[in-house]
């Protein structure tokens, strides 16, 4: 049935063999992990609704809720999107496994500190808190390595998929790199301030970059999803490609606006 459906699609619109939830045990495990992380985020939204407390600030139920939701959504998106990236199945499986484990590490550390009612990042008050902060920083560095590798692979060879998908995947990864850079900048600036005895200033220093980080984080899902949805319309392939290009340009402008806001806020 699947082979017949593929053969009816135009050559440029045929889906990769590993598209969607397929792609072996690693992809299935990554999707299951993503679902668990998303469920954790929803659970902590419920905890916030019951327990109350501030939404902003370094100690808040917002952090396990939003990080669980965001990591769950991002891991699921990357599991799907990387099926269009031309790389070996073994390499993709290994990187997805690392990505899933790292996502659990990040969300678990943030959740642990939320229940302990202490900050999860930039907290050097005790040896244990320092260990958690450094572990989260290491996990963030590993994320940068994994996602940069996938981004490089996407630009090294054109991703497969329907009209506009190659541009959507490449633009999504390029914008995702902005999210990674802004996240690394927040951690680096905060660590410097913490090490120099400005703990409260370290927490406040991340605020201007948070909108940029949030806006740029999910382009890797939004743009490929648009290309996938357009492939199921009656639009011609050139029209679909132009629509994806316009969406990518619009998303890039939104990221630029967030970057300008961050620059003038410092």
Structure description:
- Keywords: Membrane, Transmembrane, Transmembrane helix.
- With about 270 residues, this protein is mainly α.
- It has helices spanning about 1-5, 25-50, 60-80, 90-115, 125-155, 165-195, 200-205, 210-215, 220-230, 235-265.
Q: What percent of the residues sit in helical stretches (DSSP H or I)? A: over 70%
* Residue share in β-strands: under 5%
Enumerate the spans where pLDDT stays under 50 for 5 or more consecutive residues. 1-22
Give the CA-based shape: globular
Keywords:
transmembrane helix, 2 domains, mainly alpha, globular
Provide a quick synopsis of the model.
By secondary structure, the chain is mostly helical. 74% of the residues lie in helices and 0% in strands. It folds into two domains: 143 residues, no CATH class; 106 residues.
